[in-house]
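Sequence decides. Our protein:
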Amino acid sequence: MHPATKESPLPALGLGIVAIVLVALALRPSIVSVGPILPRIIDAFALSHAQASLLTAIPDLLMGLLALPAPWLAHRFGRDKTIVTALAILGVSTLIRAFAPDVLALLLSTVGVGAGIAVTGTLLSGYIKVNYPTRAAWVMGIYVTGLSFGSTLSAVITAPMAESVSGWRLPAGIWSVLGLLATLAWGYVYWQHVRTHDASQKTVAVRAPMPWRNALAWRVAAFFACVNLIFYAMVTWTAAVFLEHGLSSSMAGVLLGCFTAAFMLASPVFGAYSKSLDRRVWLVSSAVITLLGLVVMIVAPLWAPVPVIAITAFGLGGAFTLGMTLPLDNTANASETNAWTAFVLTIGYLVAATGPLAFGYLRDVTGSYASSLYMLIGIAGLMIGMACWLKPAEH
C-alpha cells in the first residue's frame, strides 16, 4: 500500500491546478502547429517528407533523451527553478523558429522546443505526486486535458491564420506567448514555495534509481511508447493525409482540431472513471477504440472523417492519460515517481520519435499514405496485447 501523504491545503491546491493548466496549455502547440503548415514549410525550405517530419521527431527524441537528466537537474537546481528555466527556453525557441532563415536554424530552434517540453513534462509528475497523492489520476486528467486543449487551439487556428497572412511564420511564432504565460505562472509557484519554505522542494534530495531492471516499468514504457508513436504520427500527418484525399487545407486543419479535441475530452473521462489502481480494463478499451478508428480511416477515409478521427483520438487520449498515471500507480513516493516517469518518458518518446519519421518515409517510398496507416494499425494491435500485462505492483 502507498504510505499516507497529507495533501496541500486548498489555497495551494488551487494555485497548483491553475499553474498546471497554464503549463499544460503551452507544452504542445509548438509541436502540433507544425502539422497544418507543414506543406508551406516543405515548400519554403525544399524539404522531403522525411526531412519535414524532423520538426516533430526532434522534440519527441529530446522528450526521451532529456527525461533522464531532468531529475538530476531538479536535484541540483531545485524543481521549480528548473521548470521555469525550461519553460522560458520553450517560449524563446518557438519564437526563434518562426524567424528561421535556413534549415539549420529551423532544426536548432526545434531542439530548444523539445528540450523545454522534455524537462517540464518529466518534473510535473513528481509535483503532482507530492501535492495530490490521493487525486493523482484526477489531476493527471486535468493536466492531459490542458495538453489537449492547447493542441486543439493550435490545430484549429494555425491553418486559417496561415491562409489569412499567406505565410507560415506568424502562425508558428504566435504560440510563444503561451510559453511566456507558463513561465510567469510557474515563476509565481516558485516564489510561493520560496516564500513559505515549502518542504516539498526537498523531496528531490533523495534520488531513487532508474527502474532499468523492473519488468513492469518496461511494460509501462512500451505501452506509452506505442500511444505516443501513433499520436505524433497522427498530429504530424493527419492534415497532409486528408489534403491528399482532396480536402481543403482549412478542412484538413479542422480534422486535426477534431483529433486534438476528442483527445482532450477523453482525458477527464478516463481519469475520472478509472478509479482502481488496476486499470487494465480501461487500458484495453482505449486501445480497442484506437484500433477501430484507424481501421475505418484506411478502409473508408472520406466516410464521415470527423467522427472517425474523433473516435481514434478518443481512444488515444484515454490511453495517454492512463499511461501518464501508471508511474504514479506503481511508486510509493515522489522520488520513485520522478525516476519511473523519467524512465517511461525516455523509452516512450525515443520510440515515438520514429513514428513521424517512419510515416513520412513510407509515404516517400510508396507514394501514398496507405502503408503508413497500416503501420499504425499494427501498433494499435500491440497496445491491446500489452495492456493486458499491466497489472500494478503492490507496495
Summary: Residues 140 and 325 are 7 Å apart (CA to CA). Residues 1-11 have pLDDT under 50 and may be disordered. The chain has one domain: 10-387.
